[in-house]
Design a protein that fits this description.
The protein has 153 residues and is of the alpha+beta class. Helix content is 41%, strand content 22%. The longest helix has 16 residues.
Length: 153
Amino acid sequence: MKTLLFSLILLFTTSSFAQSEATRVKHYNIEDNVALSGYDPVSYHANKPIPGKESITSTYKSITYRFLTEKSKEIFKANPDKYEPAYGGWCAYALAKKDPEKMEADPETYKIIEGRLYVFYNSFGVNTVKKWNKDEPKSKVTADKNWNDIIKE
C-alpha cells in the first residue's frame, strides 16, 4: 500500500513540473508576476517566512520571486524546484477538496512537507492547514491529482 501511495505521489508531483511557461503563468498564484505575495521562498525553509525586497528578484520559468538577501537569491537559483511552492502557491487544502479550487493562500500559513513548501488559506477564523493535517496523506494525493488536472487545462 505504501509503495502504491508513493508511486502515485511521485507520478503526480513530477508531472506537475512538466508544464510550459505560459501554463505556469496562467495557473500560478501571482500578483504583478510575483509569487508568494513577495515573500522570500528560501526563508520558509529557515522556519520564518519573510517578505523579500523589490530590488532583489529572480525569475524562474516566467515566475518572479523576491528575496531578502542576495545569498537567499543564489540559494534559490541553485535549486529552484526545491523552493517553489506546491500547487502554484494556491491553498493546498482547497485543491484537496472534492471540488477543487484555486484559493488564495496566506503566505505566513504554511508547511514544509518532504522538503516542499505548501501554503494555506487562513482568514476569518478559518485556518485550512488544520483541516489538511487531519488526513495529510490523503489530502496530498488528492491535491496532487487535482493540480495535475488543472494544469492540463
